[in-house]
Amino acid sequence: MAEMLQLLLFVLASLCVCVTSNQVAEPYVVYMGSALQGGDHEALQAAHLQMLSSVIPSGEEQRVSLMQSYHYAFKGFSAMLTETEATLLSGYDDVVSVFPDRMLQLHTTRSWDFLDAESHIGSHQLPHKAFGSTDVIIGMIDSGIWPESPSFNDAGMGPIPSRWKGTCMEGLDFNKSNCNRKLIGAKYYNAQLGSIQPSSNGSLAKQNAFGTPRDPIGHGTHTSSTAAGSMVSNADFYGLAQGVAKGGSPTSRIAMYKACFLDNCPLSTILKAIDDAINDGVDIISISIGTVSHLQTDFLNDPLAIGAFHANQRGVLVVCSGGNEGPHPFTVVNTAPWILTVAASSIDRIIRSTIVLGNGNMLKGYAINFSNLSRFESYPLVFGRDAAIGATLVSEASNCRPGSIDTIKVDGKIIVCVNVGVPVTRNTKILAAQEAGAKGLILIDDLQKENSFYSGDFPFSQVGKDAGTQIFKYMNYTKKPTAVILPSEDVKEFKPAPTVADFSSRGPGGVTEGILKPDLMAPGVNILAAGVPNIVTVPQGKKPSNFVFMSGTSMACPHVAGASAFLKSAHPWWSPSMIRSALMTTAITTNNLGEPITSYLGANATFHEMGAGVISPLRALNPGLVFETTVEDYLYFLCDYGYKIQAIRSISGTNFTCPSSSPDLISSINYPSISIAKLERKVMMRGTRRTVTNVGPPNSTYIATVDAPNGIKVIVTPDRLTFTRRWMKATYLIVFNANSASEGYGYGSITWSDGAHTVRTVFAVNVV
To answer: Which residues form the Subtilisin-like protease fibronectin type-III domain (predicted)?
Structure first.
């Protein structure tokens, strides 16, 4: 009830109508660049209120109020403004950008074991220091947390790091005692208008926030336990996926920043959460949130990009989900080069619901259902098209759209549906089948097939087109076709795995193709992790489960955050870019059959689908060489992107100057992958440089090998790098020539090896 009231208050505030020159006031974010450490926050807020007063007409003083105030790592605020007022503020010298405050959306027992197994590294090969540190803090910006979950037990954990400055906020259903040495912080945010405003005596008055850090939907609880959940024995989901649940860095601390209201996440609140997390002392920030690809904006109007830049300035790595709009290209989001962008893969466990046809044939479907049917039963089969009501469009009944199915023709039967025309969600199809009295539902659709849908007690199974063809053939040639859908079971050591999840958003990046995105891939299909009891339907006769399955790049993101914390615990002085580099250059590009990783349809995956490959945290512990990307690199990137020097100086907080000539600085920043957005065949050569830092043995020599696509010639100079000490740097040139290549993207890699370490840089080259 409290959550619904909070959401209602936020909606009412967002819809507040204030007329100025016939314009409606709406929430805006005003971004003002880098903030000084240790600045006077109240003075800054007072200045922001004064700035608002200068553009808001007299008589509307109630709008001189800050919804959010940013003052730790960067400066700015959010407030209710008309379009005219926003335009006026954007002209102020101190203002970098002004943009509407929109809503973003929220994008285990087996996954970590699978990643460890694929590394082919035994625990005896790992340094002891990789397992002892509990000083790493992961900030989760999400929907809240369920503190009673066993995944957040703090048994055996030492004192909270002294540098921690965060708090455990109380709410109507959340006490300070809900935090402990594992869950060390929990904040929530007031989305109402007027959280900071002038008082009658001239000081600043802060209204009391209303809400709770508690998670109402389970998303933040799931991602938090995936990143850093404590080890929990005998975890399962009603008997499925039994094993030990744990996070990627079970010894790390968790701090939750609840920036989402149900599944909606205001831009202004996310920005405030990032600012707070940086100031509180987190090491890693995990954000499984993003916009849809067609609404992407440039970097200075993107709050995730803004916040992540300043986090990077302060040494904090930001990991973001890449989106769930696959398998289409140009859909990946959160693509700023200072963000670690994550795609989603499957693991070697699937949840299977077998279909037994009346002729004895058994088809391997995918679903999570706990029906009580057995293989000794059978029920008539009917195709949705043949059960249409009257003049209902055949396509609608085939799609099992609500209202299109004749109850008399379906009652007591198993209905077969397909996805045609306007898409209908799986949940909607199941509800339509249940309302029609169906005994079960078989869905024929390759998309999201392996992302098993949970149907509770209702018999449901999804198969691809090949199995669907067998079903239709049987129905067409059998007078009275029958079938039964069996309860689900989990299958371990499934092959091939991993594959790229069909829903995982693909590159190239729509904002810039000069950076190869996504960066990496991690498990994101059917991930078992902590959940909120009673969020999902409880099977008859069962108690609510402490664990649930979820899928999405939202689940892949905390895998990388956990892996990053694991590396940070072993290498506390590594910068964010060094951690990213180690994960990317040691990523795995083959599956558990020893063959190239494929997409969901079986074709070899490209680097625009899987980034550098699937993370291998154990291999990343000792990468040999790393690519250090500096803040200056990112500023050069912004120069080449076309931002004005004054804006770049405000962002950086320095007197930085762009170079007089910029030979494609975007592709040439010291990134662990390479993307050439446009390589013309008529141009003889195109070059880019990279610099590596030796973090391996002091005396070593690396030799380069190139794997290039047909028609593209790649030359590395020099092709041998010799290091005489640790932390020594070496620079090399990569030249691309596409004189005989066909148009479009080609993919390849450059691998440096000293016999003990393998450092791979993947590249994508667009020939035009």
So the answer is: 669-765
DSSP 600-653: TTSSBPPHHHHTT-B--HHHHTS-SEE-PPPHHHHHHHHHHHT--HHHHHHHHT
Structure-token match 């954000």, residue found: 287
End-to-end CA distance of the chain: give it in Å, rounded: 57
Which residues in 511-566 belong to E strands, given as ranges? 520-523, 527-530, 547-550
CB 454 within 8 A of CB 345: no
Q: Hey, what are 63's tokens?
A: 């709008």
Helix (H) or strand (E) holding 564: helix 553-570
Of 398, 452, 554, 675, which is the active-site residue?
554
Assigned CATH topology for domain 18-104? Alpha-Beta Plaits (3.30.70)
Residue in 65, 111, 133, 142 annotated catalytic: 142
Question: Residues 174-202: pLDDT tens digits?
Answer: 999 999 999 999 999 975 444 555 544 44
Overall CATH class of domain 350-490: alpha beta
Q: Which amino acid is at 652?
A: S
pLDDT at res. 7: 42
- pLDDT mean across residues, the chain: 88
Q: Is 142 a catalytic residue?
A: yes
Residue 554 annotated among the catalytic residues of the structure: yes
Strand partners, 365: 353
Say which residues have a Cβ less than 8 Å from residue 166's Cβ, sequence separation at least 6: 184, 185, 187, 255, 276, 277, 280, 281, 282
- Residue among 219, 222, 559, 608 flagged as catalytic: 219
Supply φ then ψ for residue 497, to 5 degrees: -155, 140
**Second CATH level (architecture) for the domain 111-194+206-348+498-620:** 3-Layer(aba) Sandwich (3.40)
Tens of pLDDT, residue by residue over 556-602, are 999 999 999 999 999 999 999 999 999 999 999 999 999 999 998 88
Instruction: Clarify whether 275 is annotated catalytic.
Output: no
CATH number for the region 625-629+670-767 comes to: 2.60.40.2310
